[in-house]
Design brief:
Strand order of the largest sheet: 6-2-3-4-18-17-16-10-14
CATH superfamily of the largest domain: DNA Polymerase III, subunit A, domain 2
Strand content: 35-45%
Largest sheet: 9 strands, antiparallel
Distance between the termini: 72 Å
Shape: elongated
Helix content: 10-25%
Number of helices: 6
């Protein structure tokens, strides 16, 4: 096996495939990347028990073949290679990488012990790459981090005709984003849960141009984009439905500019220690933010418009949760539907203060009882 490739394209492909490799594994070959050279294409593949990745890059193949080498070590080598063409070859039991007078040698792993890569599940449709990446980023902040509750560490991927729904919750907040997509058939329907960490990695790596083809099979979901294919094992269980939670009966509705509110929360939260909340006192024309207690305190006043409900209401939120919610809203104005202390609050972005709320992107937070 021998081939030549451009250093930048080769390094990017190795990095993309290596992201699925396990940090530690009792099976050494799972730390390897499979390189297959044939014709004018080099295919690089990696997998662990949860995910697989495969990418193709153009090469000048001198002699076809395949080899299995330690993936992270190969990535380290690629990152320090000089710019220019890279020449790779298998010489006996060693894989050599050289370029611009620099030469590295890696021992090869046994190919016979390497598991077969899973096939890409049946393709169900396609979605715009940039919209999909943005939607995943918006909901991923609400996913749980506790591996003791695996399903809450995932993102719900719902498919219903021409609508794709992404949702995540850690029981204290619930983020939902809907977007259009192009199904292969009008009756496509699915409701599965994918690891938020894996889906975030995929969304970031697939690029922001073109379309992403989505496949679903028994126990896995797959994505294909610009010569890259990846599969992820589905999580067991289902996330709770958000429909009833997002129905707010007779709320107090406040509207304000999103960016100043976000900056104010970050500013006053500097004195909030641990899980100490940020308190928001809403009046008819302003919101007064407060944080801290005893000697270390902070406050800021911002203008708001109360559209519905009582003239005054006090609520409090975990500052990091409120910051995450406001950060994922892209509109200049935010609408906040409030039920009261210790109850739900629904945040929705608006293009203007008088616009109707867009149900495509909503973020639900549980408020806490404010400190006196």
């Amino acid at each position: 096996m021998e081939f030549r490739a451009e250093r930048s394209a080769f390094t990017e492909a190795v990095a993309w495939a290596a992201r699925v490799l396990p940090t530690r594994s009792p099976v050494p070959v799972l730390g390897g990347l499979l390189l297959e050279a044939t014709g004018d294409t080099l295919r690089i593949s990696g997998l662990d028990y949860e995910a697989s990745a495969r990418v193709e890059v153009p090469t000048d193949t001198v002699s076809a073949g395949k080899v299995l080498v330690m993936g992270r070590r190969l990535l380290d080598i690629c990152r320090v290679l000089p710019e220019g063409p890279v020449e790779c070859a298998v010489e006996g039991t060693r894989f050599t990488v050289s370029g611009a007078g620099t030469r590295f040698g890696l021992s090869v792993l046994p190919l016979d012990d390497y598991p077969a890569l899973p096939e890409l599940p049946e393709l169900r449709g396609a979605v715009d790459a940039s919209e999909f990446a943005a939607a995943v980023a918006h909901v991923a902040v609400a996913a749980g981090r506790d591996d003791a509750l695996p399903v809450l560490t995932g993102i719900r991927l719902g498919l219903d005709g021409g609508t794709m729904t992404l949702a995540a919750t850690d029981r204290y907040r619930f983020a939902v984003r809907t977007l259009g997509w192009k199904p292969e058939s009008h009756d496509v329907s699915a409701d599965v849960v994918v690891s938020a960490r894996r889906l975030t990695e995929i969304a970031r790596s697939l690029g922001l141009t073109g379309t992403v083809r989505v496949g679903l099979g028994e126990g896995s979901v797959g994505f294909e984009h610009a010569g890259m294919r990846t599969t992820v094992r589905l999580l067991d269980g289902r996330l709770p439905r958000h429909d009833k939670l997002f129905t707010m009966r007779e709320p107090v509705v406040a509207v304000t500019d999103r960016a100043p509110l976000l900056e104010a929360v970050k500013r006053v939260a500097v004195v909030a220690e641990g899980d100490s909340p940020v308190r928001l006192d809403f009046s008819s024309d302003a919101v007064h933010l407060r944080a801290g207690y005893e000697d270390d305190v902070a406050s800021q006043r911002l203008p708001v418009t109360l559209l519905e409900g009582a003239e005054a209401l006090t609520v409090a939120f975990h500052p990091a949760y409120l910051t995450d919610a406001l950060s994922t809203i892209g509109d200049p104005v935010v609408r906040i539907d409030l039920l009261g202390p210790g109850q739900r609050a629904l945040l929705t972005g608006l293009p203007t203060a008088v616009a109707e709320p867009d149900p495509a992107h909503r973020h639900l937070l549980m408020s806490v009882k404010p400190l006196l």
